[in-house]
Amino acid sequence: MRLEQVGDEAALEEWRTQVLGRSGELTQVLRGIGGMEPDERRAVGQAANVAKQELEAALDARSEQLSRAALEREAADGLDVTLPGRPRRPGRLHPVTRTLREILDIFGRMGFAAIEGPEVEHDEYNFGRLRIPEHHPARDMWDTFWFDEEIDGATPLLLRTHTSPMQIRFIEQHDPPVRIVVPGRCYRYEATDATHEWMMQQVEVLAIDEGISVADLKGTLQEFARQMFGPERRVLLRNSYFPFVEPGVELAVDCFSCPGDDPRCPVCRGSGWLEIMGAGMVHPEIIAAAGFDPERYTGFAAGMGVERITMLKYGIEDIRNFYANDLRFLRQF
Ligand code: DAH
Questions:
Q1: What predicted TM-score, i.e. pTM, was given to this entire model?
Q2: Which of 3, 17, 165, 269 gives 125 a disulfide partner, CB atoms 3.0 to 4.6 angstroms apart?
């Protein structure tokens, strides 16, 4: 068989065995030289060696030609097998999901059960029963998206602006002692900027029992802050107003990024304190409305933004990064 007639890898191997193999034609010649006269042996040996080198080179060249032709055929079919493979990257949790799980774990270890509530909520639960009446200026804090449909007898539907409505829903259905955390998406009618999104996630905290005091509020939230931001953290309660708590506070932790007085600090900007949530003692009217004696039962509530906590924790400057689906951002976590 001639090498030019060899058309594929299998035929090429056949040719190699036939010519250069252990009992191939050339090998026979080389074996034969043992019985020759010295002069003849040298001449034949040299010629055979030259022939062997040439044949091997021809074999390599043909093999190369064949595989190039095969690639060209595949490329003509639209398949380029010379392209590098696409690496598969392992999946990972979204940074907000990670923080959310951490928050629920920390409260879980302190005995709080996680429950969820509806994102489409009634005006009554989102506002009214939380002591935020219509036309009250406090409503300005929570502008939202409304549904057009009317449901017989019920207050209008909206996208909840916070997870606080679950405080009411839960104590309507359950007797104290209550210890719950409520994670979930909330919506606001906002012009978005670096610190505002029209959708964000919150975690509500609610504890109601006999004898709960501000000390329990502070101790629980301080423990949370330490587990979240580091064991050295101190917390500060500052007076604030939320209609469903009395007194209402804003809870801050001391800056974990600078000594607290660096005006260039990207985390606290020199203020030394980072506000991480609103909180307060559950308003006695809310406890009474659920059918419990506010002289006997007291409680604390808190609400935090999961994106905000994630931003503080990882030094992220723009909340819009979380939902822009830019993998260059998400892969950093
Ligand atoms: N719901 C409030 C908000 O979205 C946050 C909040 C403040 C929740 C005080 C609470 C609380 O439970 O006690 O702005």
A1: 0.75
A2: 165
